[in-house]
Every structure is written in structure tokens, then in C-alpha cells.
Amino acid sequence: MKTIAFQGERGSFSEEAAYKLLGRRIRLRPCETFAATFRSVAQHEADACLVPIENTLAGSVHENYDLLLANRLHIIGEVNLRIVHNLIAFPGTTLRSLRQVYSHPVALAQCSRFFSRHRQVEKIPHYDTAGSVKMLAERRIPGAAAIASRTAAEVYGGRILRAHLEDHRANYTRFLLLSRKPAPSKKANKVSIVFSTRNVPGALFKCLSVFALRDLDLTKIESRPLRGRPWEYLFYVDFAGNLDDPRSRHALAHLREVTNFLRVLGAYEADRSTPE
Question: Does residue 173 have an active-site annotation?
């Protein structure tokens, strides 16, 4: 039984994503921070970790992009999870008596329509969605509820007062599965890399042209500041391909010629699941 680390409390959306990708025959290791999540794998406390990398509404999780560079872990899989926000309470609290709602600030922001219709309800930021349910399970604050996953309600014995509080149904988070060693697969159809360019005109154009010349589809590009070198950047790129494909190998070889730094972060099978 593999141990999978994730950030947050039991019942988090990361836990739901882990079960979706890997099934139920895993052991979970909650971590307080994203840095601790990466560290638990590097220090052999977990076999792998699952971390969010981008959300269709909130955008990229920049901290985890930086941690990908700082840690020598390999991306071996991904999973897209639809985020369904549920209003969870404990005995004694009803929708009519509701006065406070706890959750992570991003979750609260994604449920603005609910709060506009219930102006008597105070939004209270908490460090974690599932953690807010855990806190209410322990403290049983009258008139208080939390916004979190269905799994959080199951873990802590809460009751779902209302489901689908999110403003937009097309709310998905993409998670990456990371391990100490790469996991080569013939099914791999996606490659993630990071590189830096020379600070000269047309440098990024030359880098990206190595993919266009070989008809390789770029599915994601993200820039992050290069620490210690003001106004220079690292570029994280995902492209559709397999490292056994000559087009991918030649593109990366060409890219090494026009970059200062290049690292392959992982080759893995993309999540092609159809949005619900």
C-alpha cells in the first residue's frame, strides 16, 4: 500500500483527487504546507505526493511551480478534479439559523452568489476547506457551517445543507503526482519541462519555435521570476508528446542549444477525462 502525501487535512479536495487517480488502496499522509508535502517524499516519508498546480478559475498555484524547481521530484501522473463546494454543518445548525461560514479564502470567493443571497451570513477565512469542517466538528459553534468537499462531510460526520455552492460549474483543479524516480510509460503523452533563456531579443521565440517546427502542441506555458536575476524568468512548458518519439527528442535537443538551463520535470499520461 503506497503512502501518498498531500497538503491539508483529511477530507480535502487533494484527498478526493488522490482517490480518483489511484483508487482506495492507498495510505494518506496529510501535511501542513506544500513545502512539507514535497519534503515528505524527498525524505522517504511518503512514496509520492499529489499537489494542485492550476485551477480553471483561480489560475496557477505559483508556490508549487517554485517547489517543482527546488525539489528533484518527477511528475509521473496528473488528474483533473471537478471542484464541488458543499455547505456542511452539524446538528443544531440549519440554513435558516446560519450566521457564519468558514472556509479557505479561495473557496469563499468562488461562492459569492450564495453570500449575495444570504447577506446575514458572515464569511470567515480559514486555513483549509477540510480543516474548517474539522474545526466545527470539534467546537460545534452554533449557527456556523463550512464550505468543503463531500469527502470532508463523510470524514468528520457533517451534514450537507446545500451542494453546488460554486458560482461556476466549470471549476476544475489539475493535480500532479510526484515521486522520487521517473516512471517511464508507453502511454505517456505529455511532457513537462522548465527552462531559462538568454536575455536577448527573440530568445523566447526561438525556444518556442523548436516545438512549432515539429508540430508539437503546447498545452501550458507559465513564467516565474528567476531568483537572484532581476527581470529574468523561468518558463514552465507542457507539451503533447512522448520522450520515445523522435520529434520530442529532437525538439528538446534543439532547445538545449538555445537555452541557459533546461530540465525535464516528467513524462506522463495526461488526464483526458471529459468534463462533467
Answer: yes
